[in-house]
Amino acid sequence: MSVWITRSEPGASRLAARLEAAGYLPLTAPVMAIEPIAVSPPADPFDAAVFVSEQAVAPGLAALARAGVDPAEVQVFAVGPRTAAVLREHGISARYPEPASSEGLLGLSELVEVSGRTVLLLCGEGGRDLLERRLAGRGAAVRRLELYRRRPVPLEDVQARVEPESVSAIVVGSGDGLHWAARVWFAAQGSKRVPLFVPSSRVAKIGEQLGFARVVVCEGAGSDALLAALSQLVE
Q1: Which terminal residue of the chain, N or C, has fewer Cβ atoms less than 10 Å from its own Cβ?
Q2: Residue 234 pLDDT greater than 80, yes or no
Q3: Which of 150, 176, 197 represents a domain boundary (last residue)?
């Protein structure tokens, strides 16, 4: 069974290795690329730091170091277990939700009572503003430290690697990635019946709106959740 992995690196290659070990045929062709952007380190103190992706860890910690901030002196949160694992590689312990999502973060008890506290979001440029809005609504002063941007991989570069007739399933990691993957897929006359694996019901709705007829919601964005969903499809 051939699975097109549209997620960005480094997660795409890591997921491909897991799928291959499980007997699948992964096609790694990300539709979004990550590129760093110049940032100024945070100038004011904060009480909690929230890393919303693993891509935010390295540049985020570098920015905090330039500001003279010791992450051990604030509460640190990660969007999910993979981001938390990357933080552990740097010697930092972080609380994270299961399954991994912004909604899950908002359910953590430490982020429910945040009135009067300052929360720093270490994130990419643009993207969802759910965390920012909800935390501000709970009385927190929320600041964003944007560390990278996602840019679409040129359409022709992805199309050169993806042949719809050889793809049995598609895996996406975000709404933005899904929009671009859909452009590639339907421009190549790909079937709307191909199983589309998504990390949340929010992304599932986008898939349905774009015309995919078989959208499967995984229990999170991790490889274990995807493998479980794939195994059910195969059965």
Answers
A1: C
A2: no
A3: 150
Instruction: Quote the domain boundaries for residue 229.
Output: 2-31+154-234
Are 106 and 167 part of one and the same domain? no
DSSP string computed for 112-154: TS-TT-EEEEEEESS---HHHHHHHHTT-EEEEEEEEEEEEPP
Do residue 7 and residue 79 come from a single domain?
no
Determine how many CB atoms are found less than 10 A away from the CB of residue 119. 24
- What's the CATH code of the domain at 15? 3.40.50.10090
* Span 168-214, pLDDT tens digits: 999 999 899 999 999 999 999 999 999 999 988 999 999 999 999 99
User: Are 176 and 189 contained in the same domain?
Assistant: yes
pLDDT tens column, 25-63: 999 999 999 999 999 989 899 999 999 999 999 999 999
Rg (Cα) of the chain, in Å, rounded?
18
Please state the domain count of the chain: 2
122: Cβ contacts below 8 Å, ≥ 6 apart: 49, 50, 51, 52, 56, 57, 60, 63, 145, 147
Kindly tell me the burial class for residue 184, based on how many C-beta atoms sit within 10 Å of its own C-beta (0-12, 13-18, 19 or more): buried
Q: What does pTM read for this prediction?
A: 0.85
Tokens matching residue 65: 């170091």
